[in-house]
Structure formats: structure tokens, C-alpha cells
Design a protein that fits this description.
By secondary structure, the chain is of the alpha/beta class. The chain is built from 15 helices and eleven strands. Strands 4-5-6-7-8-9 form a six-stranded parallel sheet. The structure holds S-adenosylmethionine.
Length: 367
């Protein structure tokens, strides 16, 4: 099987796609031009997905890990052009959960088998470092067998250190795009790629398990940008890599931009699995929002994590990062049950510590 690739100089080069996929698997790397071919070519994607699926099974069997997502505030001081909860969106009804409400989400999640709580929110100045530390420490005290993951955006080294000291184990911060010009097209001048990257390096140095990632198909993104994303991830070596399609939101400056493409996103999940065989790769809510079967397809292309929502149903709709976000009306138990069935339909199974202890901890990670 071959693909024709036109080189910049006008030369023509014939790649054997099966060989490219094999080489990517063996070397966990490929030159840029060959990565570009795999990212752009839809003809051979089934072979790519099947290879990624095999690698995923050899590392993780049929296990799918779940993380309980608590979207605890939609206030944000930032103004990212793509994001539905950006500061200047006057149409969002803003909310923040109190400490007791967050703890009640954890309680419900714990009973459903969750052993990781992900506290995610906009950059909300009402949540001081002291408050974040207090909430984190309380969760760790009540649920010492659980991991706390924070996803609060860009903070100082000292803030990250204080959360870590309070017991936070992991931090999710997508770099969004590793290309400085592209970063500038997606964010106002008050934000910089340099600061975002520095935050990620700080988090690593402190000792967090770090998750990063990017949107696929964000406005002005080129294949070259995506290759830069992969190169940055090679440098960073994160524990988790979260990617999902860009989906436009009606009340942002990007409201009339095209959504990211499901297939390109799936190909990138598969490429990530080949390049980072051990990584935790979620089949994201955005993937499920762009296509009814998006998350199942993600799992079959190499993803191995799901992040169902534990937030109270009455605020879910307000954490609308993009239009038509799914899972905004179902309660935590319903989401959990729905994902159980969806996962089973792919031949995989969700592992929790309920009735499944040994498998859940088999990879030496906190489930
Ligand atoms: N404030 C934290 C931060 O900056 O990392 C966490 C919240 S932020 C809303 C979480 C992620 O949502 C971002 O990293 C971004 O990739 C994603 N996101 C925001 N708007 C999106 C959109 N329109 N389509 C897809 N993903 C989006």
C-alpha cells in the first residue's frame, strides 16, 4: 500500500503506508514528512487504528480507567478566542461550587467507584490558593485512597507547589498548540505560549503527574502545527495526553469557524498511542460531542481513559466550552452507567475498585 506525497520542491515520493505505521510503532517516531502523510491520509487509517489498538491492548489489556470530573467554576479571567466560558462572554450564567458541594460530588463519585477526582475550572480569582489547598487536603483526608487532579490553568510555581504540598497528585494543562504564531491567533496578548510551557515544566519539576494536550482542528491550525504539538509532547513526556476536536461556540469570536474533524482526531489518537505507548489517553467529551460514537471510536483507536462528569446537573449546562456539549442533563450515576455500556460495546471494560480490585491497580497507577 502506497501513498504519493508531494514534496515542497515538487519532487514526488512514494511511501509504503504499512511500513510507515510499523516504523512509527518500532521507533516511536518518524521524520516530519512521514508524520504528515499519516496525519493527512485517510486511506490507511483502519490499519493505523488496528495497530494502535493492539499496542494499547499489550500495555493495558481491555482496561479503561475513569476519572470523575468536577467542573467547579465557570468564572474565568482569561479571554481565549475559542472558549465558551471566556471572560467576555456575557451570555454565560456564571457559577461556582462551594467546598461542601465539591465534597458532595466526591462522595457520590466515590460510591460509584471513582478513585480520581479531577477539579477543573476557569481561572477564577475567587478560588485563592488557600481555598484550593483546603479543598484538596479535605478530599485527601476523606478519601486517602484517591488521587486528586487539578486543572485550574496557569499559576505560579509557588501556587502549584502549595497545591502539591496539600496533597494534589496530578495536574492537567493542555498546551493547546506548540506553535507560537498559532498560539497568538487563539489567545489575546495577555497570554503566551512561553508561560504555558513554563507552567508545564514547573509542574513536572514539582513532581506532579502531568497531563497536556491540544485541540484538533482549531482555527488556523495546519498539519505542521500538529507535528509541532507531537514534538513538544516528545520533549515533555506527559503521563496523560488529552486531545479533542475544536468545536465552535456561538458566543465567541470564533463562532463561525469550522469544527475539528473526527477522523483526523482519531488518527492523532492512534499516532499518540504509537509514539507514547504507555500514556493515558482519554476519549474526550468533545470527541463524544462531535459524533455520537466518538468516544467508542476513540477507545478503538488507542484511547484508554474516560472522564465522566460528576458536577451537579443544575450547573452542567453552564460549563459550555462549545456548542452542543453532551452529558449536560444526566446525573453522575446515569453518566457512569451509560459509559459502562458504551465501553462494553467496544470490547473493553471500565475498571474501578468495586469488584475489580486487582485489575484496577495492575498498572501501578491510582485508578
Ligand atoms: N482553565 C483551565 C485551563 O486553561 O487549562 C481548564 C479549563 S479549560 C476550559 C479546559 C480545556 O477546554 C482547554 O484546555 C481547551 O483545550 C478546551 N476547550 C475550550 N474551548 C474549547 C472548544 N471550543 N472546543 C474544544 N475544546 C475546548
Amino acid at each position: 500500500m502506497t501513498a504519493i506525497l508531494s514534496w515542497a520542491e515538487g519532487r514526488s515520493c512514494r511511501y509504503n503506508m504499512t511500513d510507515l505505521i510499523k516504523t512509527l510503532h518500532t521507533n516511536k517516531d518518524l521524520p516530519d514528512a512521514q508524520l504528515k502523510t499519516i496525519i493527512e491520509s485517510d486511506e490507511y487509517e483502519q490499519e493505523l487504528f488496528e495497530t494502535a489498538d493492539k499496542i494499547r491492548q499489550s500495555y493495558y489489556g481491555t482496561d479503561v480507567y475513569i476519572r470523575g470530573l468536577i467542573e467547579f467554576t465557570n468564572y474565568c479571567k482569561n479571554n481565549c478566542y475559542y472558549c465558551g466560558i471566556r471572560r467576555d462572554n456575557q451570555k454565560v450564567e456564571r457559577y461556582r461550587l462551594g467546598k461542601e458541594e465539591i465534597l458532595s460530588c466526591c462522595k457520590q463519585g466515590y460510591a460509584l467507584g471513582f478513585r480520581t477526582f479531577v477539579l477543573q475550572g476557569g481561572e477564577d480569582i475567587a478560588f485563592s490558593d488557600e481555598l484550593i489547598c483546603d479543598i484538596t487536603a479535605e478530599i485527601k483526608k476523606l478519601y486517602p485512597d484517591c488521587a486528586v487532579t487539578l486543572s485550574l490553568g496557569e499559576k505560579s510555581h509557588d501556587s502549584y507547589q502549595s497545591y502539591f504540598n496539600a496533597g494534589a497528585n496530578r495536574y492537567l494543562l493542555r498546551h493547546e498548540t506548540a506553535n507560537a504564531e498559532h498560539y497568538r491567533a487563539l489567545h489575546p496578548d495577555s497570554m503566551s505560549l512561553e508561560n504555558r510551557k513554563n507552567c508545564l515544566w514547573d509542574l513536572k519539576k514539582i513532581g506532579y503527574e502531568v497531563g497536556s494536550g491540544f485541540m484538533v482542528g482549531s482555527p488556523y491550525q495546519t498539519t505542521e502545527c500538529l507535528i509541532e504539538d507531537l514534538r513538544f509532547l516528545q520533549e515533555l513526556q506527559p503521563d496523560m495526553i488529552g486531545i479533542g476536536p475544536y468545536i465552535s461556540h456561538q458566543n465567541t469570536p470564533f463562532h463561525d469557524q469550522q469544527n475539528g474533524d473526527l477522523r483526523v482526531c482519531l488518527r492523532l489518537i492512534a499516532i499518540l498511542r504509537l509514539m507514547f505507548p504507555n500514556a493515558l489517553i482519554p476519549a474526550t467529551t468533545a470527541l463524544g460531542s462531535i459524533d455520537a460514537k466518538g468516544r467508542e471510536l476513540g477507545l478503538m483507536a488507542g484511547a484508554n481513559v474516560l472522564m465522566p462528569n460528576l458536577s451537579p446537573v443544575n450547573v452542567r449546562k453552564q460549563y459550555e466550552l462549545y456548542d452542543n456539549k453532551i452529558c449536560v442533563y444526566e446525573g453522575a450515576a446515569q453518566c457512569r452507567g451509560c459509559l459502562e455500556n458504551r465501553t462494553a460495546s467496544t470490547g473493553y471494560h471500565i475498571v474501578t475498585n468495586i469488584g475489580n480490585k486487582i485489575e484496577a491497580f495492575s498498572n501501578d497507577r491510582t485508578v
